[in-house]
Design a protein that fits this description.
This protein is an alpha/beta fold. The chain is built from 21 helices and 16 strands. Helices cover about 45% and strands about 15% of the residues. It is globular, with a radius of gyration of 24 Å.
């Protein structure tokens, strides 16, 4: 069957990747399936056009393609990549490799536990997607493990996780017997910092039609995960699920399109007839065709001739693709800013018929409404998400900082304020907390009031990168490795020489570590905390995987 790129059939000036920002074009070129000297040379040429390296890595994180990007950039040899960002690539690669190994080992263990207890739980996404694509488990970015279960097995699956040391992220009222109790839930195991998502197959929110459990299980394939045989969804089945999930979010992340591109070009082969048959059965054929068109457009993925012709004949797909590429060009919050009516129309048009479209739009609207209730431009959360710092770690951070009379502590990304409140209460120093999340700041204000330190603690809703920290004598950071690198130029510009910087789990690349300590909370994971000082430009110790054990991104 002849293959050629669908790009040749889509001539609209708005439907090609060349109109994307330079950084996004670089991402697409770097992530194209297949690699070799010619691709590396192309990246070196494109790299000369990059003027904003922080923007490149920030976009990669927002699109959830940071893991494959750092793998590729380590071998590509981009000549104008600054030294600091070269160091970041090495450190991030070590972090991602370690985290993927931990998650992969836990996936294999949990699959065995479910099988021993007679619980039919099907793992999918996460490291399994990388394996299905014929890639290493560290070549795909993921933070969680996902399992599909029968709704009737939900209670048994819940028990297996709890017996294995997991706790529910959100405990529901036991008296609540509604459907929501048994169709989706998150669980966290603190000692290895792994989050597991359980999802009842019958209640998947992003499919126009309900899935049949028997139909799913008879088409499972077996793969090896760290030497353990694990049954999962086939490549063809996963493409359908990805397309439905990505459509819910308007394909706003490059990761979904990259997953499709990698799956259909897997060295193990791909059954196109099965893909299209299953897509029709699930009512997601147009969603799949849109994903295939985006894969061809963004990542130069070759498609069978009959698939190309079907995409070209559907004028609605062309408009859908223009909509998606426009949002990718605009950036992280384009999905939320697109407008309710535009999204609803997009959902309806993405389905194979009007009845499926209306049903699909009604199902996904409920989950999307909360996240999209605020319109307009919003600042990026590019420094990392919120993860509460355990009290023993707070104590060790402050011990390393050695607060004394006259000090002013700034916490960049203060969350619920536990560090600034502890410093104010124990040492009587003035503290300033900066965060973007209004709900976390409200909790911090209430906590400061309860602890009687309102007069010492000031809380500001602001992007940490725009905060004035020139008065700080101590700065606390608990952000990702990327967040530290993004903050570094602002801190170097504003902080006085000798200002103490304490950081959890990720050091400031390029700055020497004066002290470090490891804190192991009871039943939890070990935390590494660092003390550094501003104005110390001498060569730092080389970042190692010691800080990778818990680094957040």
């Amino acid at each position: 069957m002849p293959y050629f790129s669908v790009r040749k059939l889509m001539s609209s000036e708005h439907s090609t990747a060349r109109h994307l920002p330079t950084e996004t074009q670089f991402l697409c070129a770097a992530l194209e399936p297949g690699s070799g000297p010619s691709q590396n040379e192309r990246l070196r040429v494109l790299g000369r056009e990059i003027r904003d390296w922080p923007e490149l890595f920030t976009r990669a994180q927002e699109h959830r393609v940071l893991s494959p990007l750092v793998q590729i950039m380590k071998t590509a040899g981009i000549p104008n990549l600054p030294t600091l960002w070269q160091e970041y690539v090495q450190t991030e690669l070590a972090n991602r490799t370690y985290e993927s190994l931990v998650l992969t080992q836990e996936l294999a263990r949990l699959a065995e536990c479910f099988e021993e207890r007679g619980v039919t739980a099907v793992p999918y996404k996460g490291p399994l997607l990388a394996i299905l694509c014929g890639k290493s488990v560290s070549s795909r970015q993921y933070e969680n493990l996902d399992f599909l279960v029968k709704q009737s097995d939900w209670t048994a699956a819940d028990a297996v996780l709890r017996e294995g040391g997991y706790q529910a992220l959100h405990e529901l009222d036991p008296a609540d017997r509604s459907e929501k109790r048994t169709h989706v839930g998150g669980y966290r195991r603190a000692d290895i910092s792994v989050v597991v998502q359980l999802q009842a197959l019958e209640m998947l929110p992003y499919l126009p039609r309900r899935l049949d459990w028997e139909d799913l299980t008879k088409r499972l394939v077996q793969v090896s995960v760290g030497g353990t045989a694990v049954r999962t969804i086939s490549r063809e089945g996963v493409v359908s699920l990805i397309a439905a999930q990505a459509t819910r979010h308007c394909w706003s992340r490059l990761q979904w399109t990259l997953d499709v591109a990698r799956l259909i070009t897997s060295p193990e082969g791909f059954d196109w007839a099965e893909l299209l048959e299953r897509a029709r059965d699930r009512g997601v054929e147009r969603m799949v065709l849109l994903g295939l068109g985006l894969a061809a457009n963004l990542f130069q993925t070759a498609l069978p001739e009959d698939v190309v012709e079907r995409i070209a004949r559907d004028s609605r797909l062309k408009k859908q693709q223009e909509f998606v590429l426009g949002m990718i060009a605009e950036g992280a919050h384009a999905e939320a800013e697109a407008g309710w009516m535009r999204r609803a129309l997009y959902w309806v048009r993405s389905c194979d018929n009007a009845s499926d479209g209306l049903r699909y739009a009604a199902r996904v609207a409920g989950g999307a409404e909360k996240g999209w209730s605020m319109r307009g431009s919003r600042p990026r959360k590019d420094l990392g998400g919120f993860l509460p710092t355990p009290e023993p770690v707070v104590e060790k951070l402050l011990e390393l900082a050695e607060p004394r009379e006259g000090d002013v502590l700034y916490d960049l990304g203060c969350g619920d304020g536990r560090v600034v409140i502890a410093a104010a209460k124990r040492y009587g120093i003035r503290c300033v907390g900066v965060d973007l999340d209004p709900q976390l700041l409200a909790r911090a204000r209430e906590r400061a009031r309860r602890e009687g330190v309102e007069h010492l603690v000031r809380l500001i809703r602001q992007d940490a990168k725009s905060a004035n920290v020139s008065k700080a004598t101590i700065v606390h950071l608990f952000v990702s490795t990327l967040g530290n690198v993004l903050l570094r130029p602002y801190l170097e510009e504003q902080l006085k020489p000798g200002t103490r910087i304490v950081s959890a789990n990720a050091q400031m690349l390029g700055w020497p570590v004066e002290k470090r300590a490891v804190v192991s909370e009871p039943g939890g994971m070990p935390w590494t905390v660092f003390l550094m000082r501003a104005g110390s430009p001498e060569a730092s110790e080389h970042p190692s995987t010691a800080s990778a054990t818990c680094a957040r991104s």
